[in-house]
Specification:
Elements (H helix, E strand, L loop, with lengths): L6 E5 L4 H13 L2 E8 L6 H13 L3 E6 L38 H16 L3 E3 L15 H14 L1 H9 L6 E3 L7 H10 L14 E2 L8 H4 L2 E2 L5 H12 L11
Parallel strand pairs: 1-2, 1-4, 2-3, 4-5
Antiparallel strand pairs: 6-7
Helix pairs in contact: 1-2, 1-6, 4-5, 6-8
Length: about 250
């Protein structure tokens, strides 16, 4: 009998990085299950993009998990009282962990993905973290991913069965973008046919038009600010590839 197609869970935010990871997983030949989160973020425009990307990639299943990290606050992405920092250039982005860091977000997200992976019988989880062109988030570093993977194999039946019974495969947290610059990520995504017009990266978008409700149509009317860390890094990545970013910006 032919070997069944391996399953993978892909964390899909609707941003540039996760769209590229989705394309990589599809190219490798996985049966893909995508997971996104409505986590109390002030702007959820990326979720509409995640849905569009999942449909375009013909994933087996795409789920959106509702959790509310805004009850803790502490981040400009979840706390309405905190403003998103803006800069004029990538060089002006600070070196400290920024206020856009959402405490323990990737730890929480990976835990949900891990639980679903066990149910699906999937041993591979893809996440689009990056340790080069990023805003200094501690949960985007290789050290964090390595530690989480060790924990995952200690905390799951999948991991225990592999170690004690040599059954199945160990849990793997796959981070194909972790050592790439934003320009390198975009170059690979373009080669894989990623339509970056479907993606959105801005931390502080502006809604244009008359409809102010967060319907799917209204969300696609959001324009990127062009000055948050995510916008600046994205714009530079396209510029370094000699490409025009298909996102719409309020510049």
């Amino acid at each position: 009998m032919p070997h069944p197609q391996p399953r993978a869970v892909v964390l899909l935010s609707g941003g540039l990085d996760s769209a590229t990871v989705l394309a990589i997983a599809k190219k490798v030949g996985y049966e893909i299950y995508a997971i996104s989160f409505r986590y109390g973020q002030k702007h959820s425009g990326e979720l509409a993009r995640a849905t569009t990307l999942a449909k375009s990639a013909e994933v087996v299943q795409h789920i959106v998990v509702d959790i509310d990290l805004s009850v803790f606050g502490g981040s400009a992405l979840t706390d309405k009282l905190l403003a998103v920092p803006k800069s004029d250039s990538v060089e002006n982005i600070g070196s400290e962990i920024p206020i856009t860091y959402v405490p323990a977000r990737n730890t929480v997200f990976l835990s949900f993905a891990l639980g679903w992976a066990e149910v699906l019988g999937a041993s591979d989880i893809f996440i689009g973290v990056n340790s080069l062109d990023y805003s200094g988030y501690p949960d985007c570093r290789p050290e964090f991913i390595q530690a989480y993977e060790r924990m995952a194999n200690l905390a799951t039946k999948t991991g225990v069965d592999f170690v004690s019974k040599k059954v199945g495969q160990p849990i793997r947290i796959l981070t194909p973008l972790i050592s790439m610059t934003k320009a390198e990520i975009i170059k690979q995504g373009v080669a894989l046919g990623v339509d970056y017009s479907m993606t959105f990266s801005c931390y502080d978008p502006v809604l244009v038009g008359d409809d102010q409700e967060e319907t799917s149509q209204a969300i696609f009317n959001e324009m990127a600010c062009g000055h948050c860390d995510a916008c600046l890094l994205r714009l530079r990545g396209f510029e370094q590839n000699g490409l025009v970013d298909p996102s719409r910006y309020v510049l």
